[in-house]
Amino acid sequence: MAGYLVFAAVLAGVALGADWGRLADAFFRPDIAAELFPEIITVALVNTLLFTGLAFAFGLVLGMALALMRLSSILPYRWFAIGYIELFRGLPSLLVLFMVGFGVPLAFPEAQIVGGVYGAVSFGLGLCAAAYMAETLRAGIQAVPKGQLEAARSLGMSHARAMVSIILPQAFRIVIPPLTNEFIMLTKDTSLAYVLGVTASSIEVTKFAGDALNRTVNATPLVVAGFVYLLITLPLSQLVQRLERRGNRRK
Amino acid sequence: MAGHAATTDTAAISVRGLHKSFGPLAVLKGVDLEVARGEVVCVVGPSGSGKSTLLRCVNLLEEPTAGTVRVAGVEVTHPDCDIDGVRRRIGMVFQSFNLFGHLSVLQNVMIAQRRVLRRPAAVARRIARENLDRVGLAEKADAYPAQLSGGQQQRAAIARSLAMNPELMLFDEPTSALDPELVGEVLAVMRSLADEGMTMMVVTHEMGFAREVADRVAFMDGGAIVESGPPAAVLGSPRQARTREFLHRVLQQ
Ligand SMILES: Nc1ncnc2c1ncn2[C@@H]1O[C@H](COP(=O)(O)OP(=O)(O)OP(=O)(O)O)[C@@H](O)[C@H]1O
Ligand SMILES: [Mg+2]
């Protein structure tokens, strides 16, 4: 109770003591905000979604392959998957992006990543995301009751067919909430794209706001960029909560 | 089918010298059993005696440690055996139903017809509806497993097996997970299957069903078949002391 009183007193002090005019000037100037539109949506947000979507798709495919290898009865597959997952979970995304964007081209000058900066960013971020998704997918596959596989096999389905038709569809339902969280994490990680030199047409939200900050010497672009990210992540995290509630009710 | 001996014997199932261990635990210790075509054999015995393991060795859900298993003349324990090919000829019904949770009842009965037998959708749907009708579930075709009672789920699982036109059916305690008032509807379906001449191997604790429907009852204890014969003999006047003890215990409940 005393804690609340202190907290309220501090809040009241800040509210009374703050110079609201100066704050608004620094963080929200309508003229500067207006200037950001429509490009912050039509270019920057679209690119952020594009980087995220490509990285997610690549990470999901690779993550699925790793999850199946992780569960394989063939020992070298399992080792490879464990090694990959441990390695990429431990590396900062920025380091991986540097490696993809500069390290590899230095080592193999003839090699070119398809899709330019889009390809490089989604490849680098996807490599990292795959490690997390592999663990999520593995857990989802293992959460499908063993009897489902036995029933499928006893009907004459091969192991691969049973996986595709029976196990994976049920595993995917289980992992939709954690995969959505992974999508949210990736959305934020695309702010690292600028290190690979995005251009005017491939610029994403954070770099766009950063450039505007330099130009205007005002924090308004950062505030607007924050709201643009929330535009993506808030609906998704609401979706996750709804799905999780529904999942709990079904159990 | 690749290089394994097909024989001319008429047995639907022929188990010879079957051993199965899980690590150090020996569960089956030399089981011999024949099931003739059209015969209904009930396997009874105390919990842990290896009944499920024996049944699961017939379609190789468990890999036998030693011995041979032949199904419809095909040696399933042969290393070259095309086990998927044999399994599609063997229906299996589980204690826990194991309906596919993401599919409707109709889709449950269709999917293996489509993906394994490669029947066209229209044919698979017609056969699925016929078999749902047969188990009295025609009006539940579009329901999902979670919306069905246990008895309905088990009947749907039976229809799923029947749609593959199996030559024989394996049942592992099909009514043990059911509320008592739902047992009858499942046993009725099994009884009509037996009447139609289906070859059946049934692990069960339903002594009434075994007495009335089985052609033969096999009593298992400690990983071996202790006594086997017509139900009236094995259940009515058992020769082995262990069989008498077991029956005494279950009939008291
Ligand atoms: N996959 C397995 N791994 C290890 N032990 C197993 C496995 N499956 C079965 N067992 C053991 O084998 C023994 C026989 O099991 P089984 O399921 O065949 O018995 P059961 O006669 O069907 O019993 P119940 O009437 O309880 O179903 C048990 O001791 C069981 O714990
Ligand atoms: Mg059992």
Automatic annotation (TrEMBL), chain A:
Cell compartment(s), UniProt: Cell membrane
Main location: membrane
Family per similarity comment: Belongs to the binding-protein-dependent transport system permease family.
BP terms from Gene Ontology: amino acid transport
Protein name: ABC transmembrane type-1 domain-containing protein
Record's keyword terms, sorted: Amino-acid transport, Cell membrane, Membrane, Transmembrane, Transmembrane helix, Transport
Position of the signal peptide: none
Any single Gene Ontology cellular-component annotation: ATP-binding cassette (ABC) transporter complex
Gene Ontology terms for molecular function: transmembrane transporter activity
Gene3D superfamilies on file: MetI-like
From TrEMBL, chain B:
Keyword Transport: yes
Location(s) in or outside the cell: Cell membrane
ABC transporter domain sequence ranges: 13-247
Name of the top EC class for this enzyme: translocase
Record-level GO cellular component terms: plasma membrane
Pfam families attached to this UniProt entry: ABC_tran
Reaction catalysed by this enzyme: a polar amino acid(out) + ATP + H2O = a polar amino acid(in) + ADP + phosphate + H(+)
Keyword ATP-binding annotated: yes
UniProt GO molecular function: ATP binding; ATP hydrolysis activity; ATPase-coupled polar amino acid-transporter activity
Membrane topology, record value: Peripheral membrane protein
Key words, A-Z: Amino-acid transport, ATP-binding, Cell membrane, Membrane, Nucleotide-binding, Transport
EC number(s) recorded for this UniProt protein: 7.4.2.1
Cross-referenced CDD domains: ABC_HisP_GlnQ (cd03262)
Family statement: Belongs to the ABC transporter superfamily.
Protein name: ABC-type polar-amino-acid transporter
Species, as recorded: Pilimelia terevasa
